[in-house]
Design brief:
single chain, alpha/beta, TIM Barrel, 2 domains, 9-stranded mixed β-sheet, 8-stranded parallel barrel, 12 helices, 17 strands, binds pyridoxal-5'-phosphate, lysine biosynthesis, DAP_deCOOHase_LysA, PLP-binding_barrel, decarboxylase
Length: 415
Amino acid sequence: MPQIIHQTESNLNVKNIKYLIKQYQSPFWVYDANIISNKIQLLKKFDIIRFAQKACSNIHILKLMRKNNLKVDAVSLGEIKRALIAGFKKNSDEIVFTADLFDEETLSKIIKYNIPVNAGSLDMLKQLGSISPGHRIWLRINPKFGYGHSKKTNTGGENSKHGIWDPHLAIPIIKKYNLKLIGLHMHIGSGVNYEHLKKVCYAMTKSVMQINEKITYISAGGGLPIPYQLNEEPINIKKYFSLWNKAREKISQFLNKPIQLEVEPGRFLVGESGILVSQVRAIKNMGNKNFVLIDAGFNDLMRPTMYGSYHHISVISSKNREINENKTIETVIGGPLCESGDIFTQKEGGRIESRKLPLMEVGDYIIFHDTGAYGASMSSNYNTRPLIQEILIENNTFKTIRRRQTFEELLSLEQ
Ligand SMILES: *Cc1c(COP(=O)(O)O)cnc(C)c1O
């Protein structure tokens, strides 16, 4: 939910943001550790919370998760390295590697570190089994249907590349290499559609019965939504847990053993904890359209360009001028990139939209809310722009958890 920056209950308020604007070069990311802790509390009924770090993989955010007894999911060797630096242990189940394929280097490191694998293809099982018999594995199942807030985030069905279509075909491979099957996993976002969620839970129960192996864990995956709009309802976690818990009980009865219920959120834990602060650098009219151009681009915040995602926007004046929230003008917000898709107010498919925003002046600041997930972690160096700072507010202190990349660092790979 977008934080109202004029309230002081949240650390993401005008006073703190103005302080940070004085200290740091715009644009920059800010996270509030309190918000993350509160979101973790909401999930404490689950036996295991596994943070899907691709949503926000900063080492300091991972340390925060570890301090709160969370485990972590890694989807690349780079993410495994981050998890290890943050203190998560090898030779344990603290890190699970989820993917649909291995490259050679990742495969050999996973074996060396003895990290359980959540396999999304039969080829992964063969490649792993032939050099690491006995390795602990999960099966990621494609339940043959999907869901997701955009075609690009749908994670099931015939048009998804994720998961195993016929998990019973995995059993002979598992037997051949003596792989240790410990869990079944399904990552299908459900939004707040509880009817759909019932279908997912049913598909999990059915898969367990078909495979009929003595697993220890089931994972509900991630995909828990957050309200990006001011008037949106948050997900009912009680209901979400209760549906999964029922599935767990059925499975536990069927296998005649206790089953641990895992959940694997990314967005839900960090999305609302973060904002992007950027400065207005130019304002111009194009015919009837009012364009406000800022110093952050889609290389920093990719979601609007990639998915047509909505982020709530607040405005802070650079001077002592009052921002008049009631006097608004239809505004298109664009960035500095030499690319017409560099627009923060757009719908899926790239349709440019305008938004009612207060009248701005060059020098004012624009805050993009709820950018803690898939914000910094999706940034790139496009247009040769350095990665920007990340700042964490924790125990009333401001800590730089990533400094701005220098041009020398960026260019050194080519010299
Ligand atoms: C991305 C991902 C998640 C997290 O998705 P959210 O929508 O951020 O909760 C969980 N599990 C897997 C395997 C993922 O790839």
